[in-house]
Amino acid sequence: xxxxxxxxxxxxxxxxxxxxxxxxxxxxxxxxxxxxxxxxxxxxxxxxxxxxxxxxxxxxxxxxxxxxxxxxxxxxxxxxxxxxxxxxxxxxxxxxxxxxxxxxxxxxxxxxxxxxxxxxxxxxxxxxxxxxxxxxxxxxxxxxxxxxxxxxxxxxxxxxxxxxxxxxxxxxxxxxxxxxxxxxxxxxxxxxxxxxxxxxxxxxxxxxxxxxxxxxxx
Length: 218
Hints:
Layout: E1 8-13, H1 19-32, E2 37-41, H2 47-57, H3 67-91, E3 95-99, H4 102-112, H5 117-128, E4 135-140, H6 143-153, H7 165-181, E5 186-190, H8 195-215
Parallel strand pairs: 1-3, 1-4, 2-3, 4-5
Organism: Marinospirillum alkalitolerans
Family: Belongs to the thymidylate kinase family.
Domain Thymidylate kinase-like: 11-201
């Protein structure tokens, strides 16, 4: 008997949107439902992909990263992540909960950097084949909230976090355009709300997904 594959969930959003906190909350819900899971992130998720993450996030004034190199590093890390972590876990019947995936590439490299969307879509198909998230939770945060939350972190900003407001405006617009184009998959969550209300919004689609997946087992 073939094992029923797991579901692939992704969390998306700009800086300071609360992805890490809410990913942890989602995995707690999965535990309560006795659903096996793997939590991971992009760029990264494997030792080699984490090295690529370091190259992507560390600013190097001596040799700035070109837009093409940035995009290709993103997909190189993703190819490794899919092969080593995501696809094997899903095939084993585990749910995969990932902090960012390809929607982030369309938002940051496409929207933010202005890289042609057609080129990103080509690489998406090349690297992922038919693999796409089953559901995506877009934690949408207005830019004034983003700046305030980054200040609260009190830590050194990475190469993306140091970008200007115009960049983050384009990122947010690209994310919302992705959501509008695929409303069945992308659930937009108002991340400016108190955490309890954010998680109430997350619970509705998540509970439906869990109930449907568990019903298929019987």
